[in-house]
Amino acid sequence: VRIGNLDGRLVIVRDEGVLDVEELSDGLFPADPQAIYQRWDEFRDWAASHPQGRPSPLDPERLRAPVPRPPQVFGIGLNYRDHAAEAGLAIPEEPVVFTKFPSSVTGPSAEVTLPSDKVDYEIELVAVIGRRAHRVPVEDGWSFIAGLTVGQDLSEREMQWRGTAPQFSLAKSFDGFAPIGPVVVTPDEFDNPDRLDLGCRIGGEKLQQGNTGDLIFGIPELVARLSQVVTLLPGDLVFTGTPAGVGATRTPPRFLRRGEVLTSYVTGIGEIRTSLV
Ligand code: ZN
User: Fold this and answer.
1) Predicted local confidence at residue 89, as pLDDT
2) Ligand 1 center–CA 77 separation, angstroms
3) What protein residues have CB closer than 5 angstroms to ion ligand 1?
4) Measured by CB atoms within 10 angstroms of the end CB, which terminus of the chain is less buried, N or C?
5) How far is the CA of 188 from the centre of ligand 1 (A)?
6) pLDDT tens, 218-245?
7) Separation of 253 CA from ligand 1 center, angstroms?
8) pLDDT of residue 163 exceeding 90
């Protein structure tokens, strides 16, 4: 099942077009794309039964953030060996966790204002929580995931590292610093949801290219470890970390510039296009 947020309404996205969930279900399910995670199992079973309706053509420009108001947004630092190496930091023994405040979430074709000339890109696979999770064993981790989407963990590097202690959460939470989309795809849609290609580029300039099979802590492990401490809530987001190639560790550094369009993809989900202004 693939779902999206079309002008603020929850839709099922199929090859032949989009179906409005509230209309198709005769009001059984609400139009609010965020509210659906409260009844995720029920909704997923209904959507997977392939309800019949008349699809409308999809205009990708009208898609907004598929998870518009997550209660909590987790970020994981240094979760790929090649990225930890390029940053000159040790491979972590447990996940390095920060938050992106939920007001930083924006859609798959957003304009994002650069607050400085030190803003960096980080392509990431983003997991969406589908059930309340507390102290989940690692082998059950996937069953708490509603679906996967594409995200950018945009980061203002000067604020992140200035001063005596790192400021990950603030430096990664400027307005629009968490673009996600274009859709949320349920894990069963993938041949292997633990091995997905991902990357980002500006025009013809490839910036990052990786595979989620190289995650140090995979999605089930992250659900298990995070839920040992925090109760994960339906509709929460987990940004799972970025592979090598970020701008700050290049010589010379490669930060984002006004007027550029950053394209980010995960194979099997789609791509998001972020216009930097
Ligand atoms: Zn990141």
Assistant:
1) 87
2) 6
3) 122, 153, 242
4) C
5) 25
6) 999 999 999 999 999 999 999 999 999 9
7) 17
8) no
In angstroms, the CA 238 to CA 248 distance is 23
Distance CA 198, CA 266 (A): 4
97 C-alpha to ligand 1 centroid (Å)? 10
* Interval between CA 28 and ligand 1 midpoint (Å): 37
**Is the overall model pTM greater than 0.70, yes or no?**
yes
Residue 222 CA to residue 219 CA, distance in Å, equals: 5
- Cα distances (angstroms) measured from residue 49 to each of 140, 189, 230: 24, 14, 33
55 alpha carbon – ligand 1 mean position (Å): 36
* Residue 23 CA to ligand 1 centre (angstroms): 37
Q: State in Å: Cα 124 to ligand 1 middle.
A: 7
Q: Cα–Cα distance between 169 and 97 in angstroms, integer?
A: 9
- Separation of alpha carbons 40 and 244, rounded Å: 34
| pLDDT at residue number 55 | 96
Amino acid in position 117:
D
CA–centroid distance, residue 142 to ligand 1 (Å):
21
Q: pLDDT tens digits for 45-101?
A: 999 999 999 999 999 999 999 999 999 999 999 999 998 888 888 899 999 999 999
What is the Å distance from ligand 1's center to 200 Cα? 13
Mean pLDDT of 163-173: 94
